[in-house]
Design a protein that fits this description.
Quinone Oxidoreductase, Chain A, domain 1, 15 strands, 26% strand, Rossmann fold, seven-stranded mixed β-sheet, alpha/beta, 334 residues, homodimer, 9 helices, 2 domains
């Protein structure tokens, strides 16, 4: 059976060029002991993948040039040499960026039994959802009544942070760009603030208007002027959960940081980076709390869906151009 | 009785000019109910005072133009209308920048009874010492065996941080400038690293050489290239206690921050500002732990002493030019 997959032909500097992604194929070998073969239905593309393209080991191993790329995926077992997995089982796994994956069965997880669409386990109930929940609760220690600010508030992670914070009884401000994203935030009862065509000072003023009582919790996805503006509005004892700084992921030369970091002292504030993988032991708690909300339609999670394996690189690149509302997914035809 | 005191004639921008400090005098009124009159023997000048000069409320009220400035001081009661304080009592209080202070007795603290020089309560056993202990233990959660980095490592606070960390069994690297400061650090078993004439990258390389196993705890007094260099050497789970960022206190236009703040994510690191005043409830624990070490000569604390009330502004300004080793003090003649 033929597997079609993407490889990286070189390590990008700056925004990766489309030509760096090469679609290749190979005939799969027979199943080894313990292996399963999976037909992927859904592929995930995520900003963190940019880090794996640089050839440098950060918190996750880099992609190897010429080898199949990896990423979250949902599929169906079509052949199994593993005692616990049978043909027809729906599974989530890391063999994405390809149509047919062949993997050790032990590295594959059967989908939990909640009444939600399969692809929810790549988004609202998968890594982005768990990231939102972890950052808000475990890192920023968000409490009811807190004033919460979220950058990239309509993204896969941010769109869940704002809703989880609203559900907790917080006053929530969301930073986004496009008008339809701002409108969507407003429809959730979130105060929308645009970063477009604004200096850090202007963005800071807009945040102050939207949150006159300051900011207790900042969920950081962006960096750049968003961070500088947020720092200037912190309350005493504020907590910043740093999930990512997408603003700098494609920078060819490092951009300077905020000029007002000493606000951390004046406001006795905490700024803490985290990687969701470290907190996976809490995934069960997250799922128990959030999956029923998803099944009941109480969480308005967004998806942006591209069709076909060939659209995977474009779907990935669109993440850096504001091309997604909510979780970016690639849907594969059968 | 005449009190001589300094006032501020204007709010400085940049490094304050000497002319902004005006020496004035006034005849003190009779003691009110509960008041005491104190002849000061020692005055403290500290970097945080720069913040009070800007006319902006940060974490402490600004100095008022034309009014006596304030600061830590040690003196002797020369007249008392307070039931618990009598003539001859040694006290610490905030009526500094003057020779004779007249204050409510309730705002004055009798010196504890440890076998140490009086002025120790302005330095190693006072605010700077408590700051070092708080940042290292309560904020950075320093553990035996940690790799500890300290900027301004020969300053009033830093010089105690390095010794407290050594006493805990840590590997300690200290950043300083002048050769005699580096030599003093080396004499304590601290790895000395100079920041002079170095780029952030060069400083980072020097830190790596001095601490090949990375940095678990960074005690931050400076900001600027020190912070950028430290961020690039963090271990996973590192803790940064931000005590201050003296590098920027006199900046007329804000200098950009470090370009590698996203290291907080990659290293899952925490960066937390603190103000020692919030932790004063723990002062007794600190004193019990550190005062015997001072009395026994086990803590090598440094003082830089200027003589006479008239030297107070120069003593303060010298803090920003590397003019002190350890605690900067002004000694008043009787």
């Amino acid at each position: 059976m033929l597997s079609r997959f993407y490889t990286l032909t070189d390590h990008p500097t700056g925004l990766p060029k489309r030509e760096l992604f090469s679609l290749e194929s190979q005939e799969l070998p027979d199943l080894d002991e313990g292996e399963v073969r999976i037909r992927n239905h859904w592929l995930s593309v995520d900003p963190y993948m940019r880090g794996r393209m640089s050839g440098v080991h950060t918190y996750v191993a880099p992609f190897q040039l010429g080898k199949p790329m990896e990423g979250g995926a949902i599929g169906e077992v079509i052949a199994s040499n593993h005692p616990n997995l049978k043909v027809g089982d729906k599974v989530s796994h890391m063999g994405g960026w390809r149509d047919i994956a062949q993997l050790p069965g032990d590295s594959v997880t059967a989908l939990p039994d909640h009444n939600v669409p399969d692809q929810a386990y790549l988004g609202v109930l998968g890594m982005p959802g768990m990231t939102a929940w972890t950052g808000l609760n475990l890192i920023a220690e968000c409490k009811p009544g807190d004033n919460v600010l979220v950058s990239a508030a309509s993204g896969a992670v941010g769109s869940l942070v704002v809703q989880l914070a609203k559900a907790k009884g917080c006053h929530v401000v969301g930073i986004a760009g496009a008008a339809h994203k701002l409108a969507w935030l407003e429809s959730l009862g979130v105060e929308p603030v645009s970063y477009r065509d604004r200096s850090a000072q202007e963005l800071s003023d807009a945040i102050k208007l939207a949150s006159p009582n300051g900011i207790d919790v900042y969920f950081e996805n962006v960096g750049g002027i968003c961070l500088e503006a947020a720092l200037s509005q912190l309350n005493e004892g504020a907590r910043i959960a740093v999930c990512g700084m997408i603003d700098g992921y494609n920078a060819e030369t490092p951009a300077p940081g905020p000029s007002n970091l000493s606000q951390l002292v004046a406001r006795k504030a905490k700024m803490q980076g985290f990687i969701v993988a470290d907190h996976w032991a809490s995934y069960g708690y997250f799922l128990n709390e959030v999956a029923p909300q998803v099944a009941d339609g109480k969480l308005d999670y967004k998806e942006t869906i591209k069709e076909g394996l060939e659209s995977t690189p474009d779907a990935f690149l669109a993440l850096f151009e504001g091309g997604n509302t909510g979780k970016m997914l690639v849907k594969l035809s059968d």
